[in-house]
Design brief:
The protein is α/β, with parallel strands linked by helices. It contains 8 helices and 16 strands. Strand 12 and strand 13 form a beta hairpin.
């Protein structure tokens, strides 16, 4: 005879336990669905440097659905490491003698556009050439006070384009370091120029890169130093160690371009040109216009650990200034600039190289859209290909207004 069925009654505590068990079983699915919705945006911005923050501000104030991805833990993280010797060459012009705000803002090379009157770098320092650490604090305040939507510690490792979730319209797929995929209709890449440019020179592995070289002057005490690269990075490096080194030679593929002669803000600035004085006043330091890259000379090391340059073609000795080949060095420093990071893009969306700047910039249209990739735009310093060597697009005061134009586009 079957047992009679009895109604089951649960205490409040038992019911609570069962509900919790069910929720704990379902929670992974609930969370996964929430994350899936949060990973889809109309606009995605890669990089929370000055360029990314500026376009983020305009997107935010326009009420757009956007997110900024930043691989590090702070906005403007590039400036936590660069410039290596910590002095910016962008002018902090605090007073102009004019009451016209727009006129004064034109002479402020560092501040970003915003509706907050406290967010001007002149309120942070009175140094004409600011210290980089102060600028990092300014950028972080800009991000926090304006409540920009930034997702930190998210490094976008792969960018592709394909169907959306419904398999219909095409959208961008961004994969981060953890394999999480984000989708957006419009992508703005503001990662700046941060990949070290390593010249195609045999033996370049013997040189220490600007990105990792020692800043301890004692490491250069009495040393014979060769610096490859004669831009601002090379000259700031020479200035830093000139009081310690036995002598410093500098070489590059072209003549020195001085900003006060060319009127281009990215050429060698007067604040950095101390090494020209020591050369012209015969203080053992030297300047050579020889190092033109692969096929011209190579770096070698002898059995005693001395480094030296040697020409590929010995007949080359008869045609150019060759005294640099007679010197030996203890240290060679590579200060040859930076490039845009092309590595994160899959073939379908990888930008082509611009003719400007030795392949350091992506090829873009005057609208800042990547040539051949609809709806992918470039922001910040990487837009400088449009006015390279002609205007100030390589500095913050040169690309903050283009960010506003991009937002309106």
């Amino acid at each position: 005879m079957p047992f009679p069925l009895r109604p089951v009654t649960l205490s409040a505590r038992a019911m609570e336990v069962r509900v919790l068990l069910v929720l704990s079983f379902l929670s992974p699915f609930i969370v996964r669905e929430t994350l899936s919705r949060n990973n889809v945006h109309k606009y995605c911005v890669i990089g929370a440097g000055p360029g990314g923050l500026q376009i983020g501000y305009f997107l935010d104030r326009a009420g757009r659905d956007y997110i900024i991805f930043e691989k590090n833990t702070t906005a403007g993280s590039f400036f936590t490491h660069y410039p290596r010797h910590r002095t910016l060459i962008s002018i902090n012009k605090r007073h102009t003698g004019s009451k016209n705000r727009e006129f004064s803002f034109r002479h402020d090379w560092n501040s970003l556009i915003s509706d907050d009157p406290t967010l001007f770098l002149k309120h942070y320092t009175d140094e004409y050439f600011p210290v980089a650490d102060v600028y990092v604090r300014y950028l972080q305040d800009y991000a926090e006070q304006l409540q920009l939507k930034i997702q930190y510690e998210t490094e976008i490792k792969e960018v592709d384009k394909g169907p959306d979730e419904e398999g219909a319209d095409s959208c961008f797929h961004l994969k981060d370091q953890n394999g999480v995929v984000y989708r957006c209709d419009i992508l703005i890449v503001s990662t700046g120029l941060w990949v070290p440019h390593v010249p195609d020179i045999q033996g370049i592995e013997h040189a220490q890169g600007y990105e990792s070289m020692s800043l301890d002057r004692r490491d250069y005490e009495g040393k014979r130093v060769l610096i490859i690269g004669r831009g601002n990075a090379g000259f700031e490096t020479g200035n830093h160690i000139v009081g310690n080194a036995a002598y410093i030679h500098m070489t590059a593929r072209s003549r020195i371009k001085l900003a006060y002669q060319t009127h281009y803000v990215g050429d060698v600035r007067a604040i950095n040109n101390q090494m020209i004085d020591t050369y012209q006043l015969k203080s053992l330091d030297g300047q050579f216009e020889l190092f033109t890259g692969a096929g011209t000379a190579y770096i070698a090391k002898d059995s005693k650990g001395n480094l030296f340059l040697s020409p590929m073609d010995k007949s080359f000795l008869d045609d150019v200034e060759t005294s640099i080949f007679s010197f030996k060095y203890d240290t060679i420093l590579r200060c040859t600039g930076f490039m845009f990071d092309f590595s994160i893009f899959n073939d379908s969306v990888r930008p082509r190289y611009s003719d400007a700047g030795q392949k350091k910039f992506p090829l873009i249209q005057p609208t800042y859209e990547v040539s051949g990739v609809p709806d992918m735009f470039i922001g910040g310093i990487a837009t400088h290909s449009l006015d390279y060597k002609r205007s100030a697009g390589g500095f913050i005061h040169g690309y903050r207004s283009p960010a506003r134009a991009l937002n309106r586009h």
